[in-house]
Amino acid sequence: MPLTRLIVQQFRNIKACDIELSSGFNFLIGPNGSGKTSVLEAIYLLGHGRSFKSSLTGRIIQNECNELFVHGRFLNPDQFELPVGINKQRDGSTEVKIGGQSGQKISQLAQVLPLQLIHPEGFDLLTDGPKHRRAFIDWGVFHTEPQFYDAWNRLKRLNKQRNALLKNAHSYRELSYWDRELAELAENISHWRAHYVEQVKGVAEDICRHFLPEFDIQLTYYRGWDKTTPYRDILENNFERDQHLGYTFSGPNKADLRIKVNGTPVEDVLSRGQLKLMVCALRVAQGQHLTQVTGKQCIYLIDDFASELDSQRRERLASCLKQTGAQVFVSSITASQVADMQDKNSRMFHVEHGKIEQG
Ligand SMILES: Nc1ncnc2c1ncn2[C@@H]1O[C@H](COP(=O)(O)OP(=O)(O)OP(=O)(O)O)[C@@H](O)[C@H]1O
Ligand SMILES: [Mg+2]
């Protein structure tokens, strides 16, 4: 489901841009500070309702302007063009349009525009805390399990409510009624996550073997509490500890995807280039799995493609992406770094001082 056209207005240093896109590779070439990452950031905003660089809307709206717009047209599976758009104002308000209808939700945008971002700071998936890996799992569950989004939001609300109740409760009995629903939701969410990891694992291991043949990768899912005890019992058994902490310690909010190579945590073994390749392998695996399960293609945004990768590894990644048949946006400082990836379907865009011209 590629984007066929992208319109960006008043976004960082991009005053106005309107480009027709390739359904294959789109290269963004330009010097430092020209606006390459900003184009990727704008597409990301269209699919996620937020930037991957800044949580403050004021930072992404062009200086001296009050609002930004990102519009796109994408081909849906039955080959109809569907317009999507997002407008953000300096006061923080957001307007989402899908198919000409305003007042749509950001989660609906995410549903129609599955995106995978690979950027130089993306190592945090492997080296930082579990938050990023939970987000990785939840991206997949969100796109493959229709009930997940509502269940997750409900669970978050119940968790908040429980934490408030914990403060004043005299005995566990005061919580047990609420915990029944919380436990059921937590078990469901955990079941979906485990199922997703089980499925994507095989695809990820295959791609990792191709990218990093010298390593044997192991992915294991940790659900956030001991695997033999029902969540209901965890909530009850840990009541005093939770009350002392002021929040519910164990649960789906502690889930993780544990990644090891040759039995050792990845960050202790892999070089920076190898870490980047592993992140790429995991992200491409998610995209491939999405296509296998739903028939949907995701769009890959690859910022600073050449950084950390030698030419042989770049080639491996490029050919793997080509095989997926997905739309890919690649930013690079020089055209020579992406020369091998060009074909008759690809498009090259030159970026200079926030102006994007097809080359
Ligand atoms: N709110 C804003 N309004 C106007 N310009 C901005 C705003 N925020 C950032 N900029 C400028 O926009 C440009 C954004 O550059 P961007 O990060 O897209 O560059 P790039 O081409 O990816 O560079 P690099 O190769 O260094 O990664 C920078 O020159 C930055 O100073
Ligand atoms: Mg950049």
TrEMBL record:
Its main location: cytoplasm. ATP binds at G30, P31, N32, G33, S34, G35, K36, T37. The keyword Aminoacyl-tRNA synthetase does not apply. Residues 3-356 form the RecF/RecN/SMC N-terminal domain. It is found in: Cytoplasm. InterPro entries: DNA-binding_RecF, DNA-binding_RecF_CS, P-loop_NTPase, RecF/RecN/SMC_N, RecF_2. The lineage of its organism: Bacteria, Pseudomonadati, Pseudomonadota, Gammaproteobacteria, Vibrionales. This is DNA replication and repair protein RecF. Belongs to the RecF family. GO terms for molecular function: ATP binding; single-stranded DNA binding. One of its GO terms (biological process) is double-strand break repair. GO terms for cellular component: cytoplasm. The RecF protein is involved in DNA metabolism; it is required for DNA replication and normal SOS inducibility. RecF binds preferentially to single-stranded, linear DNA. It also seems to bind ATP. The keyword ATP-binding applies. It comes from Vibrio albus. Keywords: ATP-binding, Cytoplasm, DNA damage, DNA repair, DNA replication, DNA-binding, Nucleotide-binding, SOS response.
